TrEMBL record:
Belongs to the recoverin family. The gene is Visi. One of its GO terms (molecular function) is calcium ion binding. Residues 61-96, 97-132 form the EF-hand domain. InterPro entries: EF-hand-dom_pair, EF_Hand_1_Ca_BS, EF_hand_dom, Recoverin. It holds the Pfam family EF-hand_8. This is VISI protein. Keywords: Calcium, Lipoprotein, Metal-binding, Myristate, Repeat. It comes from the Eukaryota. The keyword GTP-binding does not apply.
């Protein structure tokens, strides 16, 4: 990805990221330096990613959802996120165009990566999301959305799908 001797970000990756994200060359170089300090081998493992996610949700269980998010960003399916995948993920979730966010959301819900989203996959993702909601907040949800099954059923009905 970068120059192995200097640890510098390759020109090819830099140009690709400048073109495909809203980040400037200066921002990307700063992000890269920070990434290299935190991940000297140039990669984030799923376990590390889950740990980072856990710091944002200290009073809940984000591990399952983090696993799905990681899977959706690990575009080369090697079990790690390199700098390119990390920046694309950051861009998509924070400032990407709507159609790109929708594509990412689809990849998140397409758990088995078969190009279709099933009701069971919707339930799996919503169940993972529910584990991040503190129990006292779950009690405040509307009656028709206060469990993963009810929320999945409601979402599935919204898209006017039958059972399959």
């Amino acid at each position: 990805m970068g120059n192995a001797k200097s640890g510098a970000l390759s020109k090819e990756i830099l140009e690709e990221l400048k073109t495909s994200t809203r980040y400037s060359e200066e921002e990307l170089c700063r992000w890269y330096e920070s990434f290299q300090r935190q991940c000297p081998d140039g990669r984030i493992s799923r376990a590390e990613f889950e740990k980072i996610y856990g710091t944002f949700f200290p009073n809940s269980d984000p591990k399952g959802y983090a696993r799905h998010v990681f899977r959706s960003f690990d575009t080369n399916d090697d079990g790690t996120l390199d700098f390119r995948e990390y920046i694309i993920a950051l861009h998509l979730t924070s400032s990407g165009k709507t159609h790109l966010k929708l594509e990412w959301a689809f990849s998140l819900f397409d758990v088995d990566r078969n190009g279709e989203v099933s009701k069971n996959e919707v339930l799996e993702i919503i169940s993972a999301i529910f584990k991040m909601i503190p129990p006292e907040e779950q009690k405040l949800l509307p009656e028709d959305e206060n469990s993963p099954q009810k929320r999945a059923d409601k979402l599935w009905a919204y898209f006017n799908k039958g059972e399959n």
